[in-house]
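Reopening: structure tokens for the iron/sulfur cluster complex, inputs below.
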Amino acid sequence: MPKSNLLAVTSITPDHFDINQLSHQRFKVYTAKQLDQIPQLQQLSAEQRFEMQVVASVLPFRVNQYVIDELIDWQQVPTDPMFQLTFPQRGMLKPEHYQRVADAMRNELGAADLKALISEVRAELNPHPAGQLEHNIPKLDGEVVEGLQHKYRETVLFFPSSGQVCHSYCTFCFRWAQFVGDKDLKIAARESNQLQDYLRAHPEVTDVLVTGGDPMVMKTRNLRAYLEPLLSDEFAHVRTIRIGTKALTFWPQRFVSDDDAEDLLALFAEIQAAGKHLALMAHYNHWKELEPEVAREAIRRVRQTGAQIRAQGPLLAHINDDASVWARLWQTQVELGIIPYYMFVERDTGARHYFEVPLVKAWEIYRDAMQQVSGIARTARGPSMSSHPGKVEVQGVTEINGEKVIALRMIQGRNPDWVQRPFFAKYDDQATWLNHLQPAFGEERFFFDE
Ligand code: SF4
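Re-run output (same inputs, fresh job):
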């Protein structure tokens, strides 16, 4: 899209925003069991609806009325990006997996056998990429601290037990295993004081990232119980509190018209007033998520508290593998006061085969999108892989001494000494993840391979 068109995107218009228009909007959600109750799905064939049931029996499905009514363009289904983002599609299971589950459902396999089959299929979908269950779990006094992950020295991830769902589920979610009701696959804090105990023992931690699921599904009083103690002097080393959320897209009413919305905004303001930096790590995949007036009102209200909103999300086939979509997304974010932060690479889990984009193509899309926006919108890093050794950014394709190579950079490393190290891989236009790449220049291994 030419820049002149991008600039035509409307800005926030609080003057004509009427909160009373929202008062009738109550949160209503559909899960796999209620798929047939969604009136708009009746426009699809019986076969398509069966395919959705099959996929939704393996991968999590949850969508709310706001997404159905305000974000999906039903004239464009099934290719509509918001439909692809939230509704199961046949291709999201590999053909052999699809066939096994579809046959079982058609033949009305007994409940126990069907459950066992589904568990088997899930186990083949790499439910915990980048060694999440084995490598990042911290200990305190020799005991595993549940609900926390500590991979990078300065940042702790906290998974509050009551924040382990989302207002809707994304079909590509890399944390999908959290949502399928299997206790063995779930990471969640059992006690609210675990976080505090751990932080007391780790003065090197400056950043706490509250994540899920989506912590914004919690009532404000629960979120407050976790966050308010961190404002006291004993946690002076915690400088930044980040909250990972997609509520600005999936349920912006959380910040506008929910019963405890005002209290939530007051909590944000308190955190800022205590001298901490509060950042909402907002998950966005498409500029369409920023169009509804209520979504813009939510952004305006959050920003008024002094909190910052940083935007991140993966590059995905079927949803946003198009430079003009990213250019418009970043440009709109800047106009609404959001900082574009990351373009991620789809992780090696779940329905990855359906969404993945080769690294070289991802970089081409990133570069093309960057070229369409002004410098102020060029703050997004990317495309970046959250891999086992660390966060690796694809910096581009180049030629060195006659060898075509992919240039990469370790943005964040398991070993702090690796941070910001550049390195090179042999050119490979099919590779979709770090482990597909070979070192360039005849090297045997990358510096992080031990
Ligand atoms: S909002 Fe985030 S955690 Fe929730 S389903 Fe989407 S990607 Fe997963």
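Residues 166, 169-170, 173, 175, 212-214, 246, 283 surround iron/sulfur cluster (CB under 6 Å). Confidence is low (pLDDT under 50) at residues 1-14. Marking as resolved unless the reporter disagrees.
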